[in-house]
Amino acid sequence: MNALSPDHLPDLSAPRIAFQGEPGAYSEAALLEYARWRGLPHPHPVPCISFEDIFAQVNQGQVEYGFIPIENSLAGSIHRNYDLLLQNDLWVIGEYHLRVAHCLLACPEAGLEDIHKVISHPQALAQCDGFLRRLGVTIEAAYDTAGSAKIVSQRSDCTVAAIASRRAAEIYGLKILVENIEDNPANFTRFLMIAPQSGDPGEDAKTSIVFSLRNVPGSLFKGMGVFALRDIDLTKIESRPLVGKPWEYFFYIDFAGSIKDPVVQRALAHLEELALFLRILGSYPRHRQVS
Amino acid sequence: MNALSPDHLPDLSAPRIAFQGEPGAYSEAALLEYARWRGLPHPHPVPCISFEDIFAQVNQGQVEYGFIPIENSLAGSIHRNYDLLLQNDLWVIGEYHLRVAHCLLACPEAGLEDIHKVISHPQALAQCDGFLRRLGVTIEAAYDTAGSAKIVSQRSDCTVAAIASRRAAEIYGLKILVENIEDNPANFTRFLMIAPQSGDPGEDAKTSIVFSLRNVPGSLFKGMGVFALRDIDLTKIESRPLVGKPWEYFFYIDFAGSIKDPVVQRALAHLEELALFLRILGSYPRHRQVS
After folding, report:
1. What residues of chain B lie within 8 A of the CB of A253, using their CB?
2. SS3 of B217, please?
3. A3, A109, A269, B24: which could form a disulfide with B168 (CB 3.0–4.6 Å)?
């Protein structure tokens, strides 16, 4: 596993939450915000190399929870994590919408006029394209955003800056030269908290399911009828074709309501009558996105 | 604009098609396959730095067509390109599903045992993670896959390899050490061909639309009813929340059928009765994904 910064020294009483990336990654910033929002004890974030590693660590009990990105407002759903949710017997117990605010980070002595090169993950570089063009700098790709901050902190070169999170600046002792440098401020990533057992959805809940239907005309219309006819509001619907199986799809649906609500239970029993496959991923407290 | 390789010297009779990336990018490979599938004259691919540049070049008439990725079977929909379709007054006139087959490329003298470092776009590196771990190499990020092939061709170092397309090997004079090194073979990207005028959808057609609905319970159920009640098959449905507007969504729907079909026209007229906003992105020959 990755080297741990002093901020990551284990606190044995803190819940361990696995995330993908280096210390300072947006996933880590999001899980800390999530814990604050839910009033949880300050967690101990555990960096993982891949999404697969997160699921493996939760399965093996090396961590209590995993924290995974599931969709981004500009880039779309992360199907890979839906696949992993289906392949593993874990539960979604929470969600959080992180506003992705990119910062330009450099060594503490640097001024904006000193910067000649900016390094970061290609997606972060692309999301700040307008800013970088105005700055007139060269760009260089890095494997991830927090990793680019680490590189800048290791090189003693005040002409190189990184694009990463505010938290990466704290961890790697860098200065924030400019904040919110992304071209499109409507940049949110939704994360899911996963655990070996289901959680308490609370009063204001959301439920996530995945299902497939018999391939007959109007099957999805009927499938959605089980919710519409009970006035259950959908907050997400997405079809995903099954590769190699024309006309067969998985549907991802999120809806407002708790699995403990009898109306929701009847809707899901009704959906089971129509579905070839149905999996309840979890029912959890709803996080309302702020912009 | 990027430097052009000899393969990209203008042929004035060839249709110019803008794509994002360097020569040898997967987008370029896809547009060449698309042209072959449609029996079009061999096109002249025009590399662009960003998706925005593609739309600008088509708008300004510098190219006849643009070719954009819209969804990937592992990574999901590319919402940014849906945004650009809505912001620009262009039409979708074709689609193509490319099987993304990653190749390990090196200088012609290299053998697999010589390779100590592999460079590519972080997403390609992640998609070949299993292969790279077995190979026991270090990895390095590059801005894009074709760019990594270019870097390998410029360095005269037989210990460094790139992950890129088969076409990138041809363009940059590299040797394919191993083909299909991706961990998951179900890796397809769907591309759309865009143009200033609508095209001929032909007999076996698909139509793409974007719409929003009044936020009342069951509105999406009614919206889907206009298709289900006419036995029109949906091939994609996706909701996208509008940032800062809770409970307001755009819906992306693709369905089997041509805009020239009276049944389809009646369904869309019916949808207009329910929709706050409706845009027909285009009606085009359907490309059936092979796996």
Report:
1. none
2. coil
3. B24
